[in-house]
Each structure stands twice: as C-alpha cells, then as structure tokens.
Sequence to fold (294 residues):
Amino acid sequence: MFRGTGTAAVTPFRNGSVDFEAFGKFLNWQIDSGVEFLVILGTTGEAATMTADERREIISFAVKTANKRVPVVIGTGSNSTAATIELSKAAFALGADGVLVVTPYYNKPTQEGLFRHYQAVAGAIPGPLVIYNVPGRTGVNMLPEAVIRCAAIPNVVGVKEASGNMAQIDELIRGVRKVRPDFAVLSGNDDQAFHLVCSGGDGLISVLSNVMPKETSDMVRLSLDGRMKEARELHMRLFPLMKNLFIETNPIPVKYAVSRLGFCANELRLPLVEATEKCMSVIDANMKECGAHA
Fold:
C-alpha cells in the first residue's frame, strides 16, 4: 500500500477559498502520471491554515476523485494526542485509506512520549498509520529505537523519514527489518529517495512529484526494481529541481511551480507568501533544465 511514490499534494486556492475544480484536475493528472498514492493535507498542502469544514470537504473530495484508483492518505498530526485521534477518526470516517501523523511539534516530547503518542493514536483508529519524522519542522527527532518499538503495533505500517541523516536512516532500515519486514520506510526528502531505496527502503513521499509525477515515480520504481543505472541517471536529471524546491519555505516554491504548469493559481495563505523574484527565476530555470511539463 505504501511502496513507491506518494505525492504530498499542494492545495489550490483562488480568492482565499479552496479551488476544487483545479484540485480535481491536478489529482487526476497525478494519478494518470503513475504515482502510487496521494498524501492530502500535509505540510505541502498547507493543512495548518485549514478550517474544520475545509478539511472535511478536501478529504471527501480527494477520496471521491481518487475513486479507489490509488490510496488516499490524510495528514492528521498535531501536538495534542487527543486532537490527533479525533482528526484521524474523522479522516477514516470520510473514506481515507490511511493517516500520516507528524511527531508532536513545539512541546518536544521524549522518545518515550513519542512512542506512547503513536501507541495511543494507533489504538484508537480503525486503519493504517504512517509516522512522520521531520525534526527541522517539529523540533524533535524520533530516533530509530522509538520507531522500531512502534513497528510492533500492527496498524503502524510505516514511517516518512525526513531527518536528513543517512546514518540514522540506515540504522532505522537495518533495525526495523529485523522485527517487521513489511514496515514501509519512506523518504521525506526527494534528494535522498534514491539513496534510501538503495539502502533497502520502500519509496518516497514527494514534493517534487507535484511538478514531475511521472519522472519521480519512474525514478523510485527503477530503484526498487534494482535498475540502478537508469534510476541514478533520472535522479541526477531531477536533482536541480529536487534541491531548489526548498530554497524558500515549502510549499512556496512548489506552489509557484505547479502554477507555472497551469494547475493552480500561485496563491498561498498567510503566514506564507508568494515566492520572491529570485526564487521564481531559479525554479523557472530548473523546470526548463529538468524538462517539467504538464
């Protein structure tokens, strides 16, 4: 279910509201281009700015649009365990196939606290949970030992690992394979996905695939199939855009890039603002160099 490429989808806005017409076209393009699953209402989707009503509408719309062609995973994490449980239950009630739960941010729990958080959430929900470790955003790094403990919980099915530390990733893969061979280890960083799969990981939850879904998913599948020369060549071709989609805070550059492809307006919600002229110039050049097109 969580092997290959999942797109951490942008949320199109127009005049302050969710642009569902644009969202539908964008999600269909993603599915038609070969991504294995969709991740909705994550960081890239500006979930922190959504109202409760918008969340329900977006989840229902994404599930209906996907129509079982690919799994739909919903970001439901918060820094309150009780709130995370309620958000996750609501997502499953609306038809989600899984939830992506970021480590609690700001309150900086210990490793024991992280384990108990996921234990409590997993025990309260009816479906699969993927851990999301992104210390650059949350201020806490979930170490391999804690993830491996969580892997013993049946419906904790994987981790999106975005620590950026390849030694930590190797330690995680090595350890989790001993206790749960089917536990999905997914890169949360596009530029490390090729390397993670080479180390025995399972794929990628991607920002880049918002812009180049076919090429990103092809690169991951080639890596998973052991066709390393072809995978490496594609990784290197895509590398400039992988890197520079993060020259300003995500999703500022990727929202601009998707707007350049014609799938949405270049509109974000405060406190995020549009890309600078310098950022737009870099993204334009990278999209041309990498061959990005709709």
Observations:
- The chain has one domain: 4-237.
- Residues 4-237 form a domain with the TIM Barrel fold (CATH 3.20.20.70).
- The chain has a mean pLDDT of 97.
- The first helix runs from residue 20 to 32.
